[in-house]
Specification:
Helix content of chain A: 40-55%
Cofactor (chains A, B): FAD
CATH class of the largest domain in chain A: Alpha Beta
Largest sheet of chain A: 8 strands, parallel, barrel
Keywords (chains A, B): FAD, Flavoprotein, Oxidoreductase
Strand content of chain A: 15-25%
Pfam family, one (chains A, B): MTHFR_C
Oligomer: homodimer
Strand order of the largest sheet of chain A: 1-2-3-4-5-6-7-8
Organism (chains A, B): Dunaliella salina (Green alga)
Shape of chain A: elongated
Number of strands of chain A: 18
Protein name (chains A, B): Methylenetetrahydrofolate reductase-domain-containing protein
Chain lengths: 607, 607
């Protein structure tokens, strides 16, 4: 949906709104951290989020990828910045096509910063030299498909500002005419440069209206978070800072806490003033940080922490209005450690099951596109790190060591986990039981049963319990003990009779080709793995397992041996061959203990 | 569906089948017992059941009512016997119309026994004198609507049998011609008279085929259960008993157990022999008893007790193939003590929810027809008993006494319960906790909060547990404590603040008109009341509560004050006026404790 349409709806309903801006992190770790932060921030219901443009080459691709994932994985209406810097028309075409393929409908069109190593903007061959031409080009090539947003400068564009007051006045008037041209060419929404003088912004809006710019104008709010950052940004953007603000920041120069607190105070005061004076909504420059932005919005009254939905066992359920996944309330347990992969792979589905899983596999669309896995897990940087922490295994014992180290929390990397630890918050395992679980899991590894997913039982755990709990307060959550591991054909033969002799266990085992499947789960049957009961609600069945989803997952799980691990080594190398052979000959085994009211079951799998 | 179509399907699939015959009990208690027995028997999957005809007047109506309830309440494909005895054409018309209204499509057309006080059959004025004419009449008036079954006599009709062997041979030949005529007139299925000589039956089938009777012929199997019964039936039906059988029965004449055991042995032997010699299925004359018939079927291999679905908390889920309710897996908790009323009132629904209740009220059709309530609860006999055990209350204290006596298990009657005790098996309350619950319930009565439904909490009770458990083995069942009671407006005012101050309670209260509703349940919200978890299954949410179903139930609950209690007394009498005034001024209150993991909550309602 176009952001402008969502804004018009809000305005028509007399409701204020807010949005967050993010930028593409430079490291993989930064990207991982951003996803978690974004998920928490989006839970508060921004009307949209935007992501700035990492101009040129791989950064451009990374931005397109981030934007696609924001739209389809975080499920927030996403606006991607697009600039002219280093972007010849064909690069723009590629980017626009990719945006459409990812289902994005919103662009913030900018000229962009000067290319690296240049002081002033340089027009690339075959490219454009200003945002106006970019807006025109998008409209020419894609008609009305995209919602287009353009930048507004309450104090004129910084490049046009000098020490000459009269020249600045003229620059300001010119910038209004230029803005009018951008809107006339197809811009439907204006977001402004950051500012600290609210009256300056309000005058800007008035001046825009005077030259017949009628679209919504959103103030760009940049919370003051650090002294250095504030100085850098206001200097770079040539933003006039009111004396009082400057004085306060200077007075607290060496007190980080005080600067941050003042930033929140000031931000809240500014936002309240703007909203009280006709501003329809706020655009928060988050700088990828959540605390200041959320604190300001809370002060303004946008955020009521008591009303933020508590996460499901797999993380937050997106609550914003455009989210197809809003009612989603059940998932296969297999993606517990790869929730992003699950969301990504099911992004083309039209509807998601709300509590029962039965029949869901027929309605869900699982993408076969391995792009997500590769981009997420195996950038060159990550690959180098993987080689470092996993070494070059040449024996099964070497592989066992990699698993042991992961479960000892020594490496933080395993191909089958998006998380750096199996026993973290995401998996909802009691911290107190971590040690016991760790022992049992390491015993599995020693027995050459290589675990990729371990969920400990939960029995009527109050939903408010930190780490373990989920869902609204006053409830009780449950989880059957569940473990999934790779096993050699020989190990499976030894194991199967043990599994078959325990009717309280549900097990499934398959090889990579799917030619040999062993299970005691009835055809079409679905087994509940976790659920919760809450006052005034039906039973929420959060995770399940069934043969159909296990088969889909098994393909992914086996593929990870190859694409995410074996590919770290040269093709034909000993390591590569070992991992390939494990992938093609070993079994993936899933075991769930239906006797969750009693003690943990891991030892019973081994016994 | 027509029984003959179901039989043809089975025959085409090469599957044997069985059916049960019942007769209309003479007493209300007998009817109640039959329903429970029938539910258990139907759980084994008979292809259909039939009910014999209680000829003439009120018995006829009772049979029509029973047949309708078998079809719509027990949800078994039902065949009703219809005879010519005392049935002029207009009475037949009425009966046939009523059958169609109840959705029945199957009739067993018979001449019937001589009317009471007669030795020989007497044709009533305007009626018919033989089954053939009845078959013709049904076809003439209702075309192909009904599936028609007729009776076959492997030894000729008893009335035609004499001591003259040659005459008997002729009678047998004549009876075959007559049977051919019945089939030609529209009979599609033959069920035989009881017999104990299997070869006689097989010869009868052969003889039928010889005169071109091609429809399925089902042997009527009457298990020997008592010496007296066996003698009476074989004498009355003039059935030839092989010498060996007669000798064995005579030898065990005084040993009831031995007779029964022999009856099962013999029945199983007969049935196996018949099936092995081309008989497609077995028709069991149950005589309204379950043990012998089920034991025989088990020996024959029709019944595997380990595969019979365990009941849901509200009783069995019908498993036979025609049952629309087969997948039904959730109901509002309010009908806990009136499950038959619930099934009856929802009989016109096209589909039933399988686990989630949300939105179900929009899809379910609740009949407003109070017929069920009246016929079930208030025959004249029951009314007399009610007056006896309830007396003629003239004060609220008198009414309280009626409730106390019910909960002390002294009376076994309360308008809001189909059961004779609140704490019986049906409600799944732990027998050991009965005493504690009784005390708390009596305290409610003393506080003038008149309970009509009390469910104690269940917390991870193993599903196999007698009384408390339900569903397949290896599971755990749960129930939130739940109580429903009538309260005076004053009592409600005192109570409401207490309810409001306990966020772990879900409450709803309404008056008879529905003009004043108090609740803390969100609009459209559904609260789980009982559920179970089972190996290899999704969470089964058996009972729920929501405002929409509470409103439907409240109408029924308030109506019962009038139709089932006040109507026991003369209109305008003190008792009638008291009950009417309670009905129109008091409130129905439902309270559920969402903290089911902790101790029982009844005292907290009072506190």
């Amino acid at each position: 949906m176009k952001v402008i349409d969502k804004i018009n709806q809000k305005v028509a309903a007399g409701q204020h709104f807010f949005s967050f801006e993010f930028f593409p992190p430079k490291t993989e770790e930064g990207v991982d951290a951003l996803w978690e932060r974004m998920e928490r921030m989006v839970a508060h219901g921004p009307i949209f989020c935007d992501i700035t443009w990492g101009a040129g080459g791989s950064t451009a691709n990374a931005t397109l990828d981030l934007a696609g994932k924001m739209q389809n994985m975080v499920n927030i209406e996403t606006m991607m910045h697009l600039t002219c810097t280093n972007m010849p028309a064909e690069s723009l075409d590629t980017a626009l096509t990719k945006l459409r393929e990812s289902g994005l409908e919103n662009i913030l069109a900018l000229r962009g910063d000067p290319p690296k190593g240049h002081d002033r903007f340089v027009t690339v061959e075959g490219g454009f030299s200003c945002a106006l031409d970019l807006v025109k080009y998008i409209r020419k090539t894609h008609g009305d498909y995209f919602g287009i947003c353009v930048a507004g400068y309450p104090e004129a564009h910084p490049e046009t500002l000098t020490d000459d007051q009269a020249a600045n006045e003229k620059a300001y008037t010119d910038s209004l005419s230029y803005l009018k041209a951008k809107v006339d060419a197809g811009g439907q929404l204006i977001i402004t440069q950051l500012f600290y003088d609210c009256d300056r912004f309000l005058k800007f809006v008035k001046d825009c209206r005077a030259v017949d710019i009628q679209c919504p104008i959103l103030p760009g709010i940049m919370p003051i978070m650090t002294y250095g950052g504030f100085k850098r940004m206001t200097g770079f953007c040539k933003v006039k800072v009111p004396q009082e603000i400057n004085d306060t920041v200077e007075a607290n120069k060496d007190n980080e806490e005080a600067i941050k607190a003042y930033g929140v105070d000031l931000g809240a005061k500014m936002c309240k003033y703007l909203l009280a004076n006709g501003t329809p909504g706020l655009h928060m420059y988050s700088l990828n940080m959540e605390k200041s932005a959320l604190a300001i919005l809370e002060r303004v009254g946008f955020i009521d922490n008591s009303k933020v939905p508590r996460p499901m066992p797999w993380g937050f359920v997106p609550m914003h209005s455009c989210g197809l996944r809003r009612g989603e309330a059940v998932r296969p347990v297999f993606w517990s450690n790869r929730p992003k992969s699950y969301v990504w792979r099911t992004k083309d589905s039209q509807a998601f099951p709300t509590s029962r899983w039965e029949g869901a596999m027929a309605r869900l669309t699982f993408s076969d596109d391995p792009t997500f896995m590769q981009i997420h897990s195996y950038s060159e940087g990550r690959r180098a790190k993987a080689q470092e922490v996993w070494g070059a295994p040449t024996t099964v014992a070497d592989v066992q060591r990699v698993f042991s180290q992961f479960y000892k929390n020594e490496t933080g990397m395993l191909p089958w986990s998006e998380f750096s630890t199996q026993f973290g918050i995401k998996n909802g395992t009691a911290l107190s039981s971590l040690e016991a679980a760790q022992g049992a899991v390491l015993a599995l590894v020693d027995a050459s049963l290589l675990p990729i997913n371990v969920l400990l039982r939960k029995f009527a755990v109050p939903s408010e319990t930190p780490v373990l709990g989920w869902g609204p307060p006053g409830g009780q959550v449950y989880q059957k003990g569940h473990v999934e591991f790779f096993a050699s054909p020989e190990a499976l033969q030894t194991l199967l009779p043990k599994l078959q002799s325990q009717p309280s266990l549900t097990y499934m085992a398959t090889n990579a080709s799917g030619s040999d499947i062993n299970t005691n789960l009835q055809d079409g049957a679905v087994n509940a793995v976790s659920w919760g009961t809450f006052p005034g609600k039906e039973v929420v069945q959060a995770t399940v397992e069934d043969l159909a989803s296990f088969k889909v997952w098994a393909k992914e799980a086996f593929e990870l041996w190859r694409s995410d691990w074996a590919s770290c080594y040269e093709s034909g190398s000993k390591s590569s061959e070992l991992l390939e052979s494990l992938c093609s000959s070993w079994y993936l085994v899933s075991v769930t203990d239906n006797q969750y009211t009693k003690g943990d079951f891991l030892p019973s799998v081994l016994a």
